Amino acid sequence: MDYQIVEIFSSVQGEGDHMGKPCTFIRLAGCNLRCPWCDTKESWNALGQTMDVAEIVAQVKYPFVVITGGEPLMHDLTPLYRALKRIDCYIAIETNGTICPSKMDEKYVDWFTVSPKPPQYALRLQPNELKYVVDDEFSVDVIPKNYVGKMSIWLQPEASEFQFRAKTAVDIALKYPALRVGLQMHKILGVE
């Protein structure tokens, strides 16, 4: 099976519960949203470099693999999952939460990071962690109450007005101590 790939690279996970872990990122082309502050707009287009599963797996350097996009759950990833599991990979998916995972997604994915986006803040799957971009539209009211205190819920300041958004995120976390302020460590360190 072939996939449209925007990029494959190895670095450290810069966000969330796995921050700092060496990993290989597989960024798929195609997204069902168009967030104005998206930092991976190149993934919106459904076109990328066509690669088959063997070509993708050959570029995996670390056993911790993050499949991201765009929106990775738009694709049938079963052949890729199977190939990654054959080489003992831990598979993490970064999704916007708007697409229900398939039975194969649920079977093979070890970790779901869900970053719901406005205006719907859809959440159509069981996350392992939640990550919300703090911008003008963000309100804690969009966070499902049944997840508070049961998993990490990250408040990530929107990057274009970082200082202002960081203060807002800190103020929210101080008011709601079950929430955590998240940063994009890879951007701070100047790595991919």
Supply the number of helical segments: 5
The CATH architecture would be Alpha-Beta Barrel
How many strands, what sense, and barrel or not for the largest sheet?
Answer: 9 strands, mixed
Extract low-pLDDT stretches. none
In round numbers, the mean pLDDT is: 94
Q: How would you portray this structure in words?
A:
Helices cover 21% and strands 27% of the residues. It is α/β, with parallel strands linked by helices. The chain has one domain: Alpha-Beta Barrel (TIM Barrel), CATH 3.20.20. Strands 3-1-2-4-5-6-7-8-9 form a nine-stranded mixed sheet. The longest helix is centred in the C-terminal third of the chain and has 14 residues, at 162-175.
Helices and strands in order:
Blueprint: E1 2-12, E2 22-28, E3 49-52, H1 53-58, E4 64-68, H2 78-86, E5 90-95, H3 103-108, E6 111-114, E7 129-134, E8 152-157, H4 162-175, E9 180-181, H5 185-189
Parallel strand pairs: 2-4, 4-5, 5-6, 6-7, 7-8, 8-9
Antiparallel strand pairs: 1-2, 1-3
